[in-house]
Amino acid sequence: MSVLVIVDRSPYGSWSGRESMDMALSLAAFDQPVTLLFSGVGVNWLRAGQDPASIFQKAVERNLAAAPIFGIGALLADQQSLEDFGLDASQCVTGVMPVTVEPTLLARFDDVVCL
Amino acid sequence: MSAVKPVSFTLVITGAPYVSQAPQTALSFARAAVSAGHAIDRVFLYGDGVHLASSLCCAPSDEVNWHREWSDFIAQQQIPAVACIASALRRGLVDDGEARRYERDAHNVQPPFRLLGLGEWVESMTSSSRVLYFQPGGGH
Amino acid sequence: MSESSVADGAGMASRHAVLHILNKPPGHARTHLCLATLAATDALVLIEDAVLALASGLDTSAAVYALGPDLAARGLAADNGQTGVIVIDYEELVALAAGADKTVSW
Predict the structure, then answer these.
(1) Considering only residues 108 to 137 of chain B, which have any Cβ-Cβ distance to chain A shorter than 8 Å?
(2) Would you identify the CATH topology of the domain A3-49+57-113?
(3) What is residue A49's three-state secondary structure?
(4) Which residues of B are catalytic?
């Protein structure tokens, strides 16, 4: 079983992206193969230099950078969405792999979760 | 319809009652699935979906009480119903045990709903034939 | 729409590679994401607010189903002029989900 967890909600203003990432981390904790895909406004989770202390939230940036250590297979990001938000790989947390969102992408996974 | 062989479903509800249509669509789906001879392995409430577990829901008398409808259905069908404990505690949904642990003077989650971790969902992902998600609508 | 996807008895059990279940209204970012991943061999089921796509128009070569009770609730006719859309009930939605190789809830 390999699972693709898609995050397409913006960071900090909504809790939904965190809850998607918690699902990915849970799968990884139980040794299930899991990949994260960030799309749309969700790519903003990947921007380097997040400092949410002044809005009293925990940063997820370090968690994402450590995703391989937690057992998450890959951090994918929709190429078009990265461009839409002026992001390139150098401005993202390390290890982000740009991809094109198309039907063949889903076909690589047994399950797709998009909260 | 008879050509479809029985499968097992896990239904994940992430939309809250009276905020989204999710609990209604999920219950209509669940009733149809049971009628067709399929199994429902588990109902898992996650994110805002945990509000469905609140026994303190007081719906107006001319509206459906979705907590009551779901409680009756899962008790009758003996379907394990789990609210994610992390989602629940943050939103003020506590059972008897958690109320004591956190020294709260009330609790609003009781059987047939239980508070457990995301491991329950992972278990469904590995064992149910299909895991379906009933989500908030477009406004969220 | 291919004839094989007609919702009558055994035809309903015809397998679609992926059954995409969409509940977001037209214009929602999730709707665009769903359509971007929809292959011609897949099927799309419109539920809840997603049935409004039958009023605004939908351009896909995949099989399209719409949940009847959600159409009725919103005052939309069976296919609202959108050709090839198959109106289903909850029982048929269950059969589609049970028969699909894979489901994605958008």
Answers:
(1) 117-119, 121-122, 125-126, 131, 133, 135
(2) Hypothetical Protein Ychn; Chain: A, (3.40.1260)
(3) coil
(4) 84
